[in-house]
Sequence to fold (264 residues):
Amino acid sequence: MSNAHITVLGARGSIPVSGSRFTRYGGSTTCSALVVDGATVAFIDAGTGLIDAGLMGLELAPSVGVFLTHYHWDHTQGLSMMDEMWSGACDICVWGPDDPQAILERAISPPLFPVSIAEVPSVRFMHMDGPIEIAGLTISPFDVNHPQGAFGYRIDGPNRSVAIVTDHEAGTGLDSEILDAISGSDVLFHDAQYLPREADAHIGWGHSTYVDAARAAAAAGVNELVLTSHNPDRSDVEIDEMVDSARGLFRNTEAARPGMEIVL
Ligand SMILES: [Zn+2]
Fold:
């Protein structure tokens, strides 16, 4: 049986941040590596955390899948600066909702970016509409509630399954469909960008509170909740406080941080 895990590379939502307030939970935006038998076979999202893969000691497989939840900047900017893509060091297949080729060729090309991703022969783009198997992992998309639409992903590994819901505004009919998709998973990464007192001013922005995350974890019957998509203004100390509050609702709660590993 293979040895598989997820390594978190970035957990910040919306925009990267830097400074002494963000040393433990990091400033890089959303990206996680799927590592099987020592090789990174896929990334879930391509936020700025992606460019730290080498620094984290991750080795890329000859062929790598990049599974995007959606195309907002904080989920794609790492792809634009991925050395292995521009150099052709590995073949990359970008999966996502809608038309990843049309959207990324617009986002990563002049005048928004100095050079065009359309000219990279080692990149392919695939519309995703069902589960994909890669290196013994099954990656299954499901719809979440986020402006312009987005996916969450469930990753079923050799030992455990992990659901990742980076960007989702709770409180619509989609909640029950998401619950069906994530129920029975061992670990749930869930958007917790807002505190309850911040939510009213951000209706329609597509994010949840830690209370929403804890409720989803309890309803889905997962063993562990990992809060993610941290608000760009939320300091390490404030994230600790948020985790403490969330533990009052769902005991086994942590917050995502670069370097965190979750066994699959
Ligand atoms: Zn978004």
Observations:
- The radius of gyration is 17 Å.
- The chain has one domain: 4-263.
- The chain has a mean pLDDT of 96.
- The longest strand covers residues 59-67.
